[in-house]
């Protein structure tokens, strides 16, 4: 009896960080600084993560096949599933159906996208990190540095729900800062990219272009930004992925910091906090980038 009591006490006193974790990392477009931040912070917290990567390479069919044929047979052995981006998260959530805890990262509007619910009791197996920066802050900062024109153009990928949600929110915010928002549907077909960029250049004349956190636009970021810069069209970039390609201005969260926040969700859960009680996490110190320079 005394031996059993001693063994139980040892389990209680054993630090959470001694636990090895197996995590399925479901990615939409390869690893980013977010995943490196996630890995590094887990190790810093003392975990011993074994991470298996499932990279969709921006292909829904490929992702569905991997989830069904590679993750499903071994799902019971995983402690968590980590997902990057709205598309991968939605597909992972549907696939899991509550069978394993899902930690999402870099999702602009997790409530609007249907990933989490405003009814917290419905979030028992999902928690995560949003890359959204408060829209009024983005637009207020942009107004300080951009031409005083009155038109703002939003490229819209009809296949991405997030972009449509952002458009609904952006219209009112833009109006508060004397910008009239217009939208332009972009065909998310890379075979048509050159034609679509030419259309965008033409439509964006005399406008500021707000570039949303859209997975397709991110995948063509170099070409997109070059086309807009060549036409001398001012841009507001909403996420870090566009910053290396010379945006006019952007107020953006840091991918690595978001990965750190995702790792801390693991710690909170391992310490006994229920997923439904973990609010969506945000980078509270977004960076203001003007041109290629960070503004203090």
From TrEMBL:
This is ABC transporter substrate-binding protein. Residues 1-20 form the signal peptide. It holds the Pfam family ABC_sub_bind. It comes from the Bacteria. PANTHER family: ABC TRANSPORTER, SUBSTRATE-BINDING LIPOPROTEIN, ABC TRANSPORTER, SUBSTRATE-BINDING LIPOPROTEIN-RELATED. InterPro entries: ABC_transpt-TYRBP-like. Transmembrane segments: none annotated.
